[in-house]
Amino acid sequence: MRPSLHGSGAELVSLPVTELAPAKINLALHVTGQRPDGYHLIESIVTFADIGDHLTFSPADEDRLSLSGPFAPAITGGSDNLVARARDGLRRLLQARGVEAPAVAIHLQKNLPVASGIGGGSADAAATLRGLLRLWSAGGVGTDEIEALALSIGADVPMCMAGRPLIASGIGEKLSPLTGMPRFAMVLANPLRGISTPEVFSRLASRQNPGLVLNDPCDWMLNLAAARNDLQGPAGELVPEIGALCNLLQSQGAVLTRMSGSGATCFGVFDSRRSADHAASMLQAERPEWYFASTETIAGS
């Protein structure tokens, strides 16, 4: 790959720039209140997988957004795509500060199911911000400005920008790193039915629920077992397959199963990556019309 110079920082950039948009997994999600503007307050334990969507960024004569991958047909490359919104928002921010932000060709390989509770669109937007900051050599932009831009795109984008184990609170913008969290071998499972996050929240019986309590900093399985996802019940009313997925994961030896985010993706934690690989293979053979993928999450450091 030939190097090139871009942006006012005149830093050497190897082309093309690539970014992984890893799956975001809500190991627990407690809904603790609701603001007057309608946004829900949460406390969530978040981690990230070693699988996800892939984005590539290259200089171009005009902006382009192309799509590929198994779930590309479920989205469009128009201005409403969060990748395009992230590109355009960052360009406005940079240009207002006199930083060059020339045309770019972005290719999104969509490997994760859409509307599935694992942060696909938000992770793509976060990866776009990271990739374009590199491509446009815009390292001098303030962190606070980038974080504000990320939040304006979506409540989950700041945590996807962080890309590390953390507790997210507020509407998702208050982030506290979890340095002691271990890796987890797991299987992600989705019935390939999209689910509306607003509709899930609208079915909540209570919006004032107890917050997270981490009793033992050394026993994460104990902490997770004592936590919950307040959205799993309402989501299960809309997509009954969520319960079936958890049962299937348990049948393959998962030591903990739960829904991630607002669904419908569920995860099962296994005692090893080998066990997770075997379980994913068995479940995919049993239900070929559904999505199963083995993964390992990143550790807090």
From TrEMBL:
Swiss-Prot/TrEMBL catalytic activity: 4-CDP-2-C-methyl-D-erythritol + ATP = 4-CDP-2-C-methyl-D-erythritol 2-phosphate + ADP + H(+)
Any single GO BP term: isopentenyl diphosphate biosynthetic process, methylerythritol 4-phosphate pathway
Domain (GHMP kinase C-terminal) ranges: 227-285
Pfam families associated with the record: GHMP_kinases_C, GHMP_kinases_N
One Gene Ontology MF term: 4-(cytidine 5'-diphospho)-2-C-methyl-D-erythritol kinase activity
Pathway membership: Isoprenoid biosynthesis; isopentenyl diphosphate biosynthesis via DXP pathway; isopentenyl diphosphate from 1-deoxy-D-xylulose 5-phosphate: step 3/6
Annotated protein name in UniProt: 4-diphosphocytidyl-2-C-methyl-D-erythritol kinase
Lineage, top ranks: Bacteria, Pseudomonadati, Pseudomonadota, Alphaproteobacteria, Hyphomicrobiales
Gene designation: ispE
